[in-house]
Amino acid sequence: MQAVELESVSKMFGTHRAVDDLTLAVPSGTIYGFIGPNGSGKTTTLRMIMRILLPDNGRIRVLGAESSQAANDQIGYLPEERGLYKKMTVREMLRFYAEIKGVHHRDCRVEIDGWLERMLLTDWANKKVEALSKGMAQKVQFIGTVIAKPKLVILDEPFSGLDPVNAEVLKDAVLGLKRDGATVIFSTHDMDVAEKMCDFIFMIFKGKKVLDGTLEEIQGQYGTDILRVRLESNGDGTESMLDLSDIAGVERVNNFGRFQELRVRRGTDSQAVLAALTARGRVRHFEVSSPSLQDIFIRIAGADAVEATHA
Amino acid sequence: MRKVLTIAARDYRAAVFSKAFLISLVALPVLWGGSAIAQIFLKDKVDTADRRVAIVDRTGKLSSLIVAAAEQRNSNEIFKAGVTPRQQVKPRFVIEVVDPAEIGAPPQSTLKLSDRVRKEELLAFVDITADLLEADAGPASAVATPVMPSAKVAYYSNSPTYGDFSNWLKGVLNNQIQEIRLGQAGLDLKLVRRANRPEAIDSLGLVSLDKDGNITDADKVNMAASFLVPIGLMMLMFIGVMVGSTPLLQSVLEEKMGRIAEVLLGSATPVQLMLGKLVGTVGVSITIMGIYMAAGYVALWHAGYADLFPTHLLLWFILFLTLSVVMNGALFAAIGAAVTDAQEAQSLLMPAMVVTMAPMFVFMNVIKEPNSTFSMVASLFPPATPMLMILRQSVPPGVPLWQPIVGIVLVLATTVASVWAAGRVFRVGILAQGKGASFQQICRWIIQG
Predict the structure, then answer these.
(1) Cα–Cα distances in Å, from B425 out to A101, B70, B212, B334?
(2) Stronger pLDDT, B342 or B393, i.e. the higher one
(3) Which of B267, B274, B426, B444 to mutate to test the interface with A (most CBs of A within 10 A)?
(4) Mean predicted confidence (pLDDT) in B419-443
(5) Which pLDDT belongs to residue B383?
(6) Given this model, what pLDDT does residue B55 score?
């Protein structure tokens, strides 16, 4: 069963086509990652799924229903821009978000306490929101999104601005939602997170769908055209940073310091490249692999991706 | 409905359990009644230094009388009543009689005395012409026109706003001149005074038959009930609308700018969100009105005027207040959704404020003639209906029942239209970022949705 279905959906803002003929199906109980450069249409798509924005064309079905109403107690939504009432305490704020989603007053306390403990925020329950750090406020906002146990959770950039510890806490919470049967859709600029967490990855670029599938399916489209190599040529065991771009068949070199990643033309014999490398120094590591999501992203988005990854 | 009430409860708590609410609760009556209270406290806080005034009496008959009147006043009328030892609360008037022969004729005389005023030796000086008593000495004019020709008595001062002395002198001079002129005309002074004695008019209500068939006595018209109660009710309603609507605009703006609106729109529709905020606002207004009315009743009861409290109008008041808050609040909420900062809100707020304040511009005409055609039409103009109708209802004998009922229907229809239009603006505007909407854009949102 599909949790979300989009069929030929388009959305214009003035003369700008934000989303162009988008068709997408999000299976229930999965984690679906939305990636794409800034301004590519991720947030617009999420807002249309939420029905905060209505599409100009196409159909959207959410949890099996087609409706023009945004408000749905079975959907939890964390927008990109966080919004909390500064003068309310954390507990009051969460109670309000729970009650507006239909959770009965008497059931709120247990749920809120459980989530606060899980997100390491118990000591902040009675503090005003304005006293929280950005990371803590983000976690409070996340709790507000999931406090009513929604079947579908939509998170717009949930990990942005979080330190590694808080990002880990949030990641565990998202995986916990999946374990409990919820469908999770989130947008991210962090390709590593998308690779590791998402069952399916969808990439939108200039309003159009350019990738959609599992990581393996997506990587399969690009073949094994990445060679990860480490050379030792200095005689003292240190890595060589020789320029390898002139080796026949090498299209692009990405230098990571300890490693170099070579992208080779389709049909290039990897053994020929290995021979060329051996001629230049001692090969300590040679690995034939598929391109990373980051690499695929950059190949598609090009210059736009530079802006996105630095955003 | 549950979502509307949840939003309303949050907004109500946020507004009422805040320092700003307590401050406005106290500040509003202080601002409105502040000048009256200040007048009471500052009544005796006057400069009691002597006021020295020169009199150039060219008739030769009035200066001694003025001096005698001033001494009489200085001995008896400048002290606080009933306080022992005597406490001076008004300045003494010290009269300096200037010999006309010595000072000479105007303009030289007035220049000399003006210089003394400039040097602060004198507060002012008075020049009385020689023919003052002769000019209207004829019997007819002396009785019929007690008003002095202005050219015959001139009061010179460079403190034009200080009127205590000139007012006092006017009374004293007129009395003395009348006596002299009546004497010259050979009339009996006591007889004329008795003939001129003013008679009071009792203002009474109408009489009617009681249950036993007897004609009841007419009640004396209570001027406080006739004027203060209607004006007080109207002002209270205005405060109620403003106390609710202004924070509503700020709250919508906060939710829009703080991106809280997008979170809320994931849980409630724009209309539910706006209705919730309006219901919360009505609650805030009714709370503050309840507090003021309870305080007003206690104050009236304490002063023995509890019967002045318009108990019979309470239901009408709450009904009109509720509709007025919703009608105006929807307008303010739409403005909050259409703009992006407080400065933009101010420019759009001006026309909304003019509509809200419209009853203030005409209420005196309405209170004087509550049942005139103008008053009736004005009170059936929906934006003005709540305030003007309650004003007319509270002035005896009130208005026919059909009028407030028609008023309610019209206001209700306007409120529904206002909420509908505001809802369309709210739905589009609440997520719009960047530049605020222009008036034309808002109209387009209303028409196109």
Answers:
(1) 25, 71, 62, 6
(2) B393
(3) B267
(4) 73
(5) 87
(6) 95
Among the candidates A160, A191, A218, a domain finishes at: A218
Task: Give the CATH number of the domain where residue A264 resides.
Answer: 3.30.70
* Disruptive mutation site among A47, A89, A100, A101 for chain B (greatest number of B CBs within 10 Å): A100
The CATH number covering residue A40 comes to: 3.40.50.300
Regarding whether B241 and B191 lie in a shared domain, the answer is no
Can you tell me the ipTM of this complex? 0.75
What would the two tokens of residue B364 be? 């005196």
pLDDT, tens only, B198-228: 888 887 777 888 888 888 887 777 766 677 7
Report the alpha-carbon angle A58-A63-A66, nearest 5.
40
Q: Is the pLDDT of residue B136 over 90?
A: no
Enclosing H/E stretch for A7: strand A2-13
pLDDT at residue number A238: 59
**Measured between alpha carbons, how far is B371 from A140 in angstroms, rounded to an integer?**
60
If we measure between CA atoms, which residue out of B357, B412, B351 comes closest to residue B380? Answer: B412
Mutate to test the interface with B, among A48, A99, A141 (most CBs of B within 10 A): A99
Amino acid at A52: I
Does residue B137 register a pLDDT over 70?
no
**d(CA A25, nearest CA chain B) in Å:** 21
How many folded domains does chain A comprise? 2
Nearest to B262 among A71, A81, A100 (CB): A81
Domain final residue pick, A218, A249, A278: A218
pLDDT at residue B308 in the model:
74
Q: Is B312 on the interface with A (CB under 8 A)?
A: no
Q: Chain B: give the shortest CA distance to residue A168, in Å.
A: 24
pLDDT surpasses 90 at A260: no
Q: Are residues A186 and A277 in the same domain?
A: no
Residues A83, B261: C-beta atoms closer than 8 Å: yes
Q: Is A207 in the same domain as A230?
A: no
**Bigger pLDDT: B290 vs B243:** B290
Statement to judge: residues A170 and A240 lie in one domain: no
One domain for residues B250 and B183: no
Residue B36 lies in a domain: no
Residue B45 lies in a domain: no
Residue B264 sits at the chain A interface (C-beta within 8 Å): yes
Asked if residue B240 belongs to a domain, the reply is yes
Task: Determine, yes or no, domain membership for B325.
Answer: yes
What is the Cβ-side half-sphere exposure of residue B232, based on CA atoms within 13 angstroms? 19
| A219 contacts A191 by C-beta, under 8 angstroms | no
Q: Which residues pair with A12 in a beta bridge?
A: A17
How many angstroms separate the CA atoms of A7 and A291, rounded?
A: 30
Mean pLDDT of B407-411: 90
> In this complex, do A85 and B14 lie within 8 Å of one another by their Cβ atoms?
yes
Residue of chain B with shortest Cα separation from A82: B259
pLDDT given at position A13: 84
A82: closest CA of chain B, how far (Å)? 6
Answer yes or no: do A137 and A179 share one domain.
yes
Of A141 and A222, the structure prediction assigns the larger pLDDT to A141
